[in-house]
Amino acid sequence: MRLVDTHVHINFDSFDADRDEVARAWRQAGVAHLVHSCVDPSEFGKIQAIAHRYPEVSMAVGLHPLDMDKWVEGETADQIATLAASEPKVVAIGEMGLDFFKANNKETQQSAFIAQLKVAQALDLPVIIHCREAATEMAALLKDFFQVHGPVAGVMHCWTGSPQETQQFLDLGFFISFSGIVTFKSATQVSASAQMVPSDRILIETDCPFLSPVPQRKEKRNQPAFVRHVAEHVAVLRGIPLSELAIQTTQNAQRLFRLPDELSYPDEQPK
After folding, report:
1. 95 among the known binding-site residues?
2. H helices within 239-271, ranges in order?
3. Which of 23, 58, 117, 244 pairs with 149 at a CA distance of 20 to 30 A?
């Protein structure tokens, strides 16, 4: 069985002391590939080093909506584009998006988001979208962008929206990725969304080091190996075997991020 963790942040300092052990754990758990997201282009060098140390790690580059103090109009988008074009292991732009939970900079977030959509379109790369308390505005912005510039592929990562909100992004062609939140008892609307996403659009992730899933909630640091718990829970919600869910989500990740057809660990033959 092979799983793909489509959203990790193992560049964070909390992994510096034992990153190799964490890698061994994800391999033992059946995680054959990881997509390493980026919250700030300044992280690119460290993420790139990780991606080259662990062959099963692909990477993205972008600016998170909560880091708008680092956005420079006319410069940051060019920096993201240059970095993305410089590294074959870059498979997406992001994470990027809108976060209106405590926002007083909505216009800047929207401007940065549109600029990064243009970068992704120019480079023919999918986007990794962060969307918090902004589903209505996000869907409207994407519709307007698509009408003017054409569609962009991508994923709504760490999705917490209702089934109605989920359908808006499915209608726009997006994949939907579920994190450890889907395992929480209180996450009823997330569970409902996980049940209704078509089998060819569903993805799984950890968003580590955040959001450790049940039964690892006491672990302060989430890690890629725990994506198996997300997969197990989603499989139960959907009433299918774990093996089937693994095949579906792995094939979806391969299609969206253009990952290799055969995923295997270093020095390991595909089974």
Report:
1. yes
2. 242-257
3. 58
Q: 229's torsion region: left (phi>0), alpha (psi -120 to 50) or beta?
A: alpha
- Angle at which helix 135-149 crosses helix 163-171, to 10 degrees, equals 10
d(CA 120, CA 152): 7
DSSP for 113-163, written as a single string: HHHHHHHHHHHT--EEEEEES-HHHHHHHHHHHHHHH----EEETT----H
Residue 9 annotated as part of some ligand binding site:
yes
User: Quick one: how far is CA 186 from the chain centroid?
Assistant: 22
64 labelled as ligand-binding?
no
**Does 207 belong to an annotated binding site?**
yes
Number of Cβ within a 10 Å radius of residue 110: 16
Domain definitions of the chain by residue range: 3-257
Return the CATH class of domain 3-257: alpha beta
pTM of full prediction above 0.90: yes
From CA 22, how far away is CA 223, in angstroms rounded? 7
7 is in an annotated binding site: yes
Annotated binding-site residue? 18: no
pLDDT tens for 64-99 read 999 999 999 989 999 999 999 999 999 999 999 999
Beta strands (DSSP E) in the chain are 3-8, 31-36, 57-61, 90-99, 127-132, 154-156, 175-178, 202-204
